[in-house]
Design brief:
globular; mainly alpha
């Protein structure tokens, strides 16, 4: 890949006027190929995005013109949905989310001339989060908030995300006696059905993602001089959550966050007691914050994230092994059924030959009677075919029972409305 990028850079130096057209064509192709997201297509989309980000770094001035055009297009699409109050499918889809992800990656490591594009992109993503507050869309909200946290950490900007995060936590606190089902991978899902949002598996998955982003958010704030004041409303909300929630696992994790927040607040309050500069001295404030050591919240977040990802990797590996074993058993059953069908057809052919020999030996008088019996007899080929049909029907019934028992079929869990019409790309 580095060699490919270097060759492309050399080509652009020779043909500078064609860079903008090339980037537009590649961006259009990226949006076309990123309409759907799954565990199989995710790596390909990530590779396309990384390649396109490297190409946008070649000429920042051309990137600014292209970025302004397409970020404005995303904003216009969002504005039309808000004003017309039509369905949100034109915004709540993988194509739109992957476009946001691309521009977050481009602006996370950009030159000074691209800095003016950061604020409009943040406003668009905040509008996406506030567009629809249904719990069915919490996976999409969490995807968008993850992008906002990544952009905030890369650009050293504060983005207010505490209210949407705590709103999702309230959903986890008020859900009682939810049925237990097999969990799904929320990283490849934008929304779920109304029936699945009431399940225990969905509640656990949403809480884990929200808890991860809450830790990320407060750990970023813990490296600032204003953390004691900024963390006060967070502490109040989390204490209310612990009073409402009746899940011991959730309250235990939130209690750890409260302890770490109190510890970091005391530490920063003691450190800034001897400060002589004022809040308007931004250079001195920045220098003071850079000298801060790694906070207890940041250490806890890094350890928790490492352990959580290790557990997730093991679970994904186990699920993949189980799927492969199920596929292997299905193939073995199909082969056994084919062998049985061949044997039955062979036996039926032998029976037909014996009957023909008997007909030649028997006298002519008995041929008429036997012919009547043959008419009444079923054809051996038909019996073999019917036996195969019965076996196939049994297999279908068995698969239907397993799908109903598991209740985790994607048709019952994932809302099929993620595919929408293409975003119209203007040159």
């Amino acid at each position: 890949m580095p060699n490919l990028i270097s060759h492309f850079q050399a080509l652009v130096v020779k043909l500078p006027n064609f860079l903008e057209d090339i980037l537009k064509k590649m961006y259009t192709e990226y949006t076309r190929c990123s309409k759907m997201m799954s565990s199989k297509s995710r790596d390909n989309i990530i590779l396309m995005r990384n390649c396109l980000v490297e190409l946008f770094k070649i000429n920042p001035s051309v990137t600014y013109v292209t970025g302004f055009l397409y970020i404005r297009q995303l904003a216009v699409t969002l504005r039309s949905v808000i004003l017309s109050k039509k369905e949100v499918e034109s915004v709540y889809n993988w194509q739109y989310v992957n476009c946001l992800h691309l521009w977050v990656s481009v602006l996370s490591d950009c030159d000074a001339c691209l800095q003016p594009l950061i604020f409009p992109l943040i406003q668009v993503m905040l509008g996406v989060v506030k567009l629809h507050s249904s719990p069915c869309f919490f996976p999409l909200h969490l995807h968008t908030m993850r992008l906002l946290l990544h952009l905030a950490a890369a650009t050293n900007k504060h983005i207010p995300l505490i209210h949407p995060l705590l709103g999702i936590l309230d959903f986890c606190a008020t859900l009682h006696k939810a049925p237990a089902t097999k969990p799904i991978d929320l990283t490849c899902v934008l929304r779920v059905t109304k029936g699945y949002k009431k399940t225990k598996a969905y509640q656990d998955g949403v809480f884990d993602l929200t808890y991860e982003m809450l830790l990320n958010y407060v750990s970023q704030l813990s490296q600032t001089i204003s953390f004691p004041e900024v963390s006060f409303p967070v502490t109040v909300w989390l204490k209310k959550f612990n009073k409402k929630c009746n899940n011991g696992k959730y309250t235990g994790q939130i209690r750890i966050v409260l302890e770490k927040v109190a510890e970091v607040s005391r530490d920063i309050t003691e450190r800034r007691a001897g400060v002589t500069f004022t809040p308007k001295d931004l250079d001195k404030v920045t220098a003071w914050e850079e000298e801060l050591p790694e906070s207890a919240l940041t250490k806890y977040f890094n350890n928790w994230l490492r352990i959580h990802r290790t557990v997730q990797a093991k679970q994904q590996a186990e699920n993949m092994m189980a799927e492969e074993e199920d596929d292997g058993e299905g193939m073995d059953n199909d082969e056994d059924g084919d062998e049985n069908g061949v044997k039955d057809s062979g036996d039926s052919d032998q029976d037909v030959e014996k009957e023909e020999d008997d007909e030649e030996i028997e006298p002519k008088k008995k041929k008429k009677l036997k012919s009547k019996k043959e008419i009444a007899k079923p054809d051996p080929d038909d019996t073999a075919a019917s036996s195969v049909d019965k076996k196939s029907k049994k297999k279908k019934k068995k698969k239907m029972k397993e799908s109903v028992a598991s209740s985790t079929d994607s048709k019952d869990v994932i809302d099929p409305g993620d595919t929408v019409e293409d975003i119209v790309l203007s040159d």
